[in-house]
Amino acid sequence: MPINHQRQLALRHAAERWLAQDPDDTTCVELNAILTAAGEPTSVQDDITPETPGEAAAAWRELEDRFGTRLAFGTAGLRGRQGAGTNRMNRVLVAQAARGFADYLLARAEREGTGQPSIVIGYDARINSERYARDTAELMQAAGVQATLLPRLLPTPVLAFAVRELGASAGVMVTASHNPKWDNGYKVYLGGTDGGSQIVSPADAEIAACIDRVANEELVNELPRSNDYQLAPESIIDAYVAATARVFQGTVQPLKIVYTPMHGVGWETFQKVLTTLGIPDPIVVDEQIEPDGSFPTVDFPNPEEPGALDLAFAAAERTSADIVIAHDPDADRLAVALRNSDGAWERLGGNDIGKLLGWRTAKHLEARGETTGATLATSLVSSPALSKVAAAYGLGYAETLTGFKWISRAEGIVYGYEEALGYLVNPESVHDKDGISASVAILEMAMQLAAEGRTIRDLDAEFAERFGSFVSVQKSVRFEQVSDIPVVMTKLRGALPTVLEGVTVTSAEEIDKDIIRLRLADGTRVMVRPSGTEPKIKCYVDAVGMEGTAAERSATARAASSRAANAMAEALIKLS
């Protein structure tokens, strides 16, 4: 869209209002440089378009990007690139969020008659995480919310645990999890009847409205602050370590483990859990073991990204390791890698690990006679393999909307996972995905198998023989602009395919406004949904092989999943 004279005046006003309240010298210098480059607004007849050349035009486009919208607060809290502006993560935005969230908690406490609300705040090693966390504690405390700050940078699961352990009204974790290194974020939990889970509707909209009021009516440099907040005692970390160690229900066996926290905060806590269990320290990836928000070896510290685990694979190769364990930077996700048939190291998919951890849970429950009322849960776009496990063991099974804010709320949940490397194996302690407790469960399995002369690959083959071989494929179709996405989705709803590559579509349904599910005659399931952050539509394809050996079942499922994924992608392209 062209940036006309009136729009330039509005952008300059927004930027100057921002500068008047920004407590951060770095972002002030950054924004002043952009304003200087932009210069005075152009004349009324001279609009700036995406094609307008020159430094000044580029600076106006930068101002439009930074102030043309506001970083939205939703069920994932806040997350985005750091920098000056309403569409960036920074101290102004965090202060507005903190005071708005405090107002929400105070109003909720008054409505419910629960007394003074409380909040526990954690932070990871990303740039500015500690500063944002301390800003939050100071503003919350001054507003009348009893604030407790975790004593140092720690994993997200420790914060989620602390909300429940301390009986807090709410929690905030300052992290951008596995996002690019220039991002940061603000993850919000609610205690009480929400049980320490992430926020869901309508709380997200109510909190957002409180934040908007602060942003529109207050200057953050005039908001009261207090340093009378508390620091959480070390005992809260010890309690998390003890609770996580109890996840291990086997016998420690020799196993050569390579571990990386990907420059994140997982190592200290994970090491304490291993020590508690008597498991020797793994071989660590030296280049990535120390917390470092600049992420010097990876731009995208996400174990799912190609190349992200290369240093771990190199260490595993050098040391002839048995298994690679990796956490993302805030340690709420877990990646596991093994050697494949040709000797190369390969990361297992989230569905591969998810179904095996679910099976582990089911076997433990059966052994203890505790299957009644217990539920295995996963997201709609994750593999249906878990449903077979639930049926075989007489357990409940729940498919939820995507995200652990929904998975953690499944009635009777004893285990939950989603395909994006997130696993909830200890719901009694943490109502969120937890890469550390999931690591403990994986090591329990791997060590038991090693004692039997087997590996996780062998267990996967056993799963295929008992429940079927499930293969999951993701394929994305990218478009020129985000605005193309709703157009294509509308066309798809109006012309749902009846056949995909010669296989009949037996049912088609719209799960919600963003998810379409197709079931094929060969048992394949296709889920189509827009990306929440990029101009693309994602296809999640899950196929199953039920006949022959484990290898034959796998081959059948792989062929079916590939065929359906390619056909669905072609159908979407034709609609564009």
Question: What does this entry look like structurally?
Answer:
The chain has 576 residues and is of the alpha/beta class. Among the domains are: 5-67, no CATH class; 78-233, Alpha-D-Glucose-1,6-Bisphosphate, Chain A, domain 3 (3-Layer(aba) Sandwich); 468-575, TATA-Binding Protein (2-Layer Sandwich). 41% of the residues lie in helices and 20% in strands. It has helices spanning 5-19, 25-38, 55-67, 91-112, 129-143, 156-165, 203-217, 235-245, 266-277, 310-319, 350-368, 385-393, 404-407, 435-451, 456-467, 484-494, 550-575, and strands spanning 78-81, 118-123, 146-149, 170-174, 183-190, 197-198, 230-231, 257-260, 283-284, 323-327, 334-339, 345-347, 375-379, 396-400, 413-418, 422-424, 469-478, 499-500, 503-512, 515-520, 525-530, 536-545. Strands 1, 2, 3, 4, 5, 6 and 7 form a seven-stranded mixed β-sheet that branches. Strand 18 (499-500) and strand 19 form a beta hairpin. Helix 4 packs across helix 7. Residues 71-215, 239-337, 362-459 form the Alpha-D-phosphohexomutase alpha/beta/alpha domain. Keywords: Isomerase, Magnesium, Metal-binding, Phosphoprotein. Residues 506-544 form the Alpha-D-phosphohexomutase C-terminal domain. It comes from Pseudoclavibacter albus.
Which helices and strands, and how do they pair?
Layout: H1 5-19, H2 25-38, H3 55-67, E1 78-81, H4 91-112, E2 118-123, H5 129-143, E3 146-149, H6 156-165, E4 170-174, E5 183-190, E6 197-198, H7 203-217, E7 230-231, H8 235-245, E8 257-260, H9 266-277, E9 283-284, H10 310-319, E10 323-327, E11 334-339, E12 345-347, H11 350-368, E13 375-379, H12 385-393, E14 396-400, H13 404-407, E15 413-418, E16 422-424, H14 435-451, H15 456-467, E17 469-478, H16 484-494, E18 499-500, E19 503-512, E20 515-520, E21 525-530, E22 536-545, H17 550-575
Parallel strand pairs: 2-3, 2-4, 3-7, 8-9, 8-10, 13-14, 13-15
Antiparallel strand pairs: 1-5, 4-5, 5-6, 10-11, 11-12, 15-16, 17-22, 18-19, 19-20, 20-21, 21-22
Helix pairs in contact: 1-3, 2-3, 4-5, 4-7, 6-8, 8-9, 11-12, 15-17
